[in-house]
Design goal:
Blueprint: E1 6-13, H1 17-28, E2 33-37, E3 50-51, H2 53-62, H3 65-69, E4 81-84, E5 91-95, E6 114-115, H4 118-130, E7 135-139, E8 141-149, E9 152-159, E10 165-175, H5 182-187, E11 191-198, E12 201-206, H6 210-214, E13 221-226, E14 229-238, E15 243-248, H7 262-270, E16 277-283, E17 286-291, E18 295-296, E19 299-301, E20 307-308, H8 316-336, H9 341-369, H10 384-400, H11 408-412, E21 466-470, H12 477-485, E22 490-494, H13 498-504, E23 508-511, E24 517-521, H14 528-535
Parallel strand pairs: 1-2, 1-10, 2-7, 4-13, 10-19, 21-22
Antiparallel strand pairs: 3-6, 4-5, 8-9, 9-10, 11-17, 12-15, 12-16, 13-14, 14-15, 17-20, 18-19, 21-23, 23-24
Helix pairs in contact: 1-4, 1-8, 8-9, 12-14
The protein binds flavin-adenine dinucleotide.
């Protein structure tokens, strides 16, 4: 007799940062889930280096923001972005970004963007997910196939250590299986957009005091522009151990790691020979695409599986973690029995437009690099003409290419327009400016940060369930009752802070478990039960 398949509420495929973030979010909510990852989790060639402000806010909720802040990237290391003819050549412009330890608090968030390589970030997420009793992480385990029906998903897992195969039955399957997602392929979900933008080459190396060897002031990211145009960047990954990454913007598309002439690339980027310890080479494809759908029935997709974007702007993983947080509370609410049938369906409606927005901006940032190629033959000349050209170019580079480092609006200003579970209040949207973040409590927006008298942020009030913020006198019992009778977790929190009241703009503001505003008004609607049903996806 066949043993019945083991049952799992949520099966996550892929243990990259997005799968780990989803496991973290579900674990934090006490939802049982299993994550399978075909590799052993070791990161040979790290990609991601910048954890943006919104992701740091999620880390703050999970209680791991300090661990990310205290990662081995030194807090007193300059985050300057520098345009150079080569690392040892002329400096054209410097975008000043002070070390974290010297940064002033921002008015819009209790957190700041953090330099933290995937080398450290993934293990922090992994340790947090592993510490949750409801989460099982299985490395060296591959999803081989799956079949979804209206009442669940049957999946075949392959333990690559023992060779054992097992069939499991999950209520929901989430593919966080990266750009080449076999789950997306199996579902026949296509990708649309500009497609392939290039084939960059990564060269990882180690050398002590690289900037000292070149007589350059500290900085984190150096963009190299020579007479042929802007062609590469050199980024410090681990300053304490002299670990760097050289990345070409493109290549001829025929390179393989073993054919890349790493010494020639390094010589051109640095401007002279230096001794290094080589640490790895990879060639990857820069794409600009978004999936046609983020889900099908009981199968959901998140992260690079549904959006692949140029790393210009550091939005890839950060967008994927936004997916994980949006999907996480909806899965939890559905499994806990209070989420309505429309709740999980709202995942695609809310997150796909954000994928399109971020993929589009990242491509725009990348394409700006190409505008600096013609008429710059004198760029390296030690002449007056050369000096003047560098000064002119430096200004334009810092303004146009430097935009990708001024993204507060992109990081925090995304909002769920036309969401089927947010109640439009008829007010016009604030501008969605990539650089300038404009805080707003209009439904669909991230509920704004405001400091509270006890030292906390309003953001610290959100997470577990719905929170009805009350600024002044306004009856709220009808909504509490409507929520209680439907087992929707909701608490009412009074705030007596005029600045916060002004920012939120209404006496009552209903904030969802993911920290986005679901509804606001100066008084409850007459049918509070309809409001609760709407925001839980049960219209
Ligand atoms: C040069 C570069 C720099 C970048 N810098 C940044 C940055 O600063 N900030 C940022 O936000 N983003 C950045 N990104 C983007 C970021 O690295 C990706 O968006 C992110 O890694 C995607 O995470 P993911 O979990 O969706 O996918 P992945 O990291 O690709 O993980 C997918 C995982 O799924 C596993 N898998 C696949 N199929 C199966 C299967 N059948 N069974 C089991 N496991 C499976 C794979 O082994 C893999 O580990 C950068 C990217 C590049 C290339």
């Amino acid at each position: 007799m066949n043993t019945p398949a083991r049952k799992i509420p949520v099966l996550i495929v892929g243990g990259g940062p997005v799968g780990l973030a989803l496991a973290a979010e579900l674990g934090w909510r006490g939802i049982r889930c299993e994550l399978v990852e075909q590799s052993d989790g070791a990161i040979a060639t790290p990609k991601m280096n910048e954890v943006n402000t919104r992701t740091m806010e999620f880390c703050r909720r999970w209680g791991i923001a300090d661990a990310v802040r205290n990662c081995p990237f030194p807090g007193d290391y300059s985050l300057d972005v520098v345009f150079v003819t080569s690392l040892c050549g002329h400096e054209l412009a410097r975008v000043r970004r002070p070390p974290r330890a010297q940064q002033k608090a921002e008015s819009f968030s209790p957190e700041r963007l953090q330099a933290c390589s995937q080398l450290w970030f993934d293990p922090i997420l992994r340790a947090f997910a592993q510490s949750q009793p409801s989460i099982a992480l299985r490395y060296r385990t591959r999803l081989e196939s799956f079949e979804a029906s209206t009442d669940g998903v049957t999946a075949e897992l392959h333990d690559l250590e023992t060779g054992k195969r097992e069939t499991v039955r999950a209520d929901y399957l989430v593919g966080c299986d990266g750009a080449m997602s076999a789950i997306r392929e199996t579902l026949g979900i296509g990708l649309g957009g500009q497609g392939v933008l290039g084939h960059p080459v990564h060269v990882f190396f180690r050398t002590p005091d690289l900037l000292g060897q070149c007589g350059k002031a500290p900085g984190v990211f150096f963009l190299a522009i020579d007479r042929n145009g802007l062609w590469a960047n050199i980024r410090v990954i681990d300053p304490a151990n002299g670990r760097w990454r050289l990345m070409t913007l493109d290549s001829d598309g025929r390179q393989r790691p073993d054919t890349v002439d790493r010494a020639a690339l390094l010589q051109r980027a640095v401007g002279r020979h230096i001794d290094v310890e080589w640490q790895g080479v990879s060639v990857w494809t820069r794409r600009s695409v978004v999936a046609d759908r983020y889900s099908q029935g009981r199968v959901f997709l998140a992260g690079d599986a549904v959006h692949q974007l140029s790393p210009t702007g550091a939005l890839g993983m950060n967008t994927g973690i936004g997916d994980a947080v949006d999907l996480g509370w909806k899965l939890a609410a559905t499994l806990d029995g209070w989420g309505g049938p429309g709740l999980l369906a709202s995942y695609d409606a809310e997150r796909r437009p954000i994928g399109l927005r971020n993929v589009g901006m990242a491509a725009e940032f990348y394409l700006a690099h190409g505008e600096f190629s013609g008429g710059i033959a004198a760029i390296e000349d030690d002449s007056e003409d050369g000096r003047q050209l560098r000064a002119r170019l430096g200004e334009s580079l810092a303004r146009d290419v430097g935009r990708m480092f001024r993204t507060a609006g992109l990081q925090l200003g995304y909002r769920y327009e036309n969401s089927p579970i947010c109640v439009d209040d008829g007010t016009p949207p604030v501008p969605d400016d990539p650089e300038q973040f404009v805080a707003s409590a209009r439904p669909g927006s991230r509920a704004p940060h405001a400091p509270l008298a006890d030292g906390r942020s309003t953001l610290d009030l959100f997470g577990r369930g719905f929170v009805l913020l009350r600024f002044g006198e306004a009856p709220a019992a009808a909504l509490e009752y409507a929520a209680q009778t439907r087992r929707v977790p909701l608490i009412v929190t009074d705030i007596n802070e005029p600045d916060a009241a002004a920012l939120y703009g209404r006496k009552l503001v209903l904030v969802r478990p993911d920290g986005h505003v679901a509804w606001r008004g100066d008084a409850l609607p007459t049918e509070a039960d309809k409001l609760i049903n709407f925001v839980r996806g049960k219209c």
